Give the backbone structure.
Amino acid sequence: MQYYRPSTLEQALALLAEDPDARCIAGGATLVAMMNADLVQPSALVSLKGISELQGIRATSDGLTIGAMTRHEVVSKEVRLTGRLEVVRMAAGNIGHPPIRSVGTIGGSISHADPAADYPTALVAAEAQIEIMSQNGRRLVPVHEFFISYYTTALEPGEMVTAIHLAAPPSGSVSAYCKVGRTEGDFATVSVAFSGAFVDGQCTAASVAIGGCGEAPIRSPEANALLIGAFVDSDCVAQAAEALVNACDPLDDVRGSADYRRLLVRRLLPRVFSQASQNAA
Amino acid sequence: MAERQSIELHINEETHVVSPDTGNTLLQVLRSTLSLTGTKRGCNQGVCGACTVLRNGVPARSCLTLAVECDDEEITTIEGLAPNGKASIVQQAFVKVGAPQCGFCMPGMVLVATALLREHSNPDQAEIREALSGNLCRCTGYVKIAEAIELAAEQLV
């Protein structure tokens, strides 16, 4: 296996264009684990650690851009992730443990596309845009179109994730992330992310996503529509939860049965609203 | 670029020239090439924390770290905490309170504790537990380990 450590994005993209079986290595938290288990055999590794333009979080004219190589720990402490973007900060703080958060990156995590991971669900609720580059140029993909299936994304050969774009949070917007796992630091059995806004108790915007309940983060336009315009009470939340349960397609696996996961969706939705109002306060 | 390339690894303030395969983890190189067997291989998938080392002072999984990625970093293994065979204050505290049972998780625990105490000279129980949260011990209930870190904090002041 070849190993390359380019110092610019152009060099990295040229290497990916040359060899479609090469893989980018960011923090290694997922790729090296997959290599250790013999689940992937890349022909070459393109290390991204020398590419400074992929690092860090910058304010843009319309929001925030998180570079693909930004570590979970950095995102978990980012004070500009407020309002409807706080869900992203909370998700980052829920990933694994401190030694995982200090090396794992947002670009690596979403490129791996485990539907039980924390970022995918939170980024879908926050309606992020994924910036993808290849030698042919740059494109932006809405995050819910980026996650296609288990460990499958919209990335084409020769492409890599370079950044995550988040629109600036309107004032009064709120968000939260709630997760149930078998133990602290585990992948989610079920996670629920909410991003939205309330004016005098009335919900004016709502975007809910569920993790761990299907091949990709689950969205339900029907659930969002039930919430928008409502004074969100327990009946309204219960109706939205049923719409989400209907949209879910959970599996029975080591983390829990499909029925248990449906139960968790119903239990976590009220919790995520109460967390969101705490976050707003 | 050759598949195997000679790189320098800076481990415990010594420089080693090694030629790992691209896919070799830092854990493999530490244990098999350099015979630094204090770093333990547990799950080999980043879950258990037995293989923890410090990369530039920060706890990291050596099983999820490729050796070729480390040539510009300072690596500290458990051997590096007792360079002249004299146990560090943190190690002595672990011994004193009887924190180890089988001992397999101890190198990772001690390194995490060492990094924590460099950042926070007087951590509270919540900070200690958060720091230890990525390291599994299957013998103890973590109580003595947390006590050892409190004792080390007192002695380091």
Remarks:
- Chain A touches chain B at residues 1-4, 25, 27-29, 32-33, 35-37, 44-45, 47, 49, 96-100, 102-103, 184-185 (CB under 8 Å).
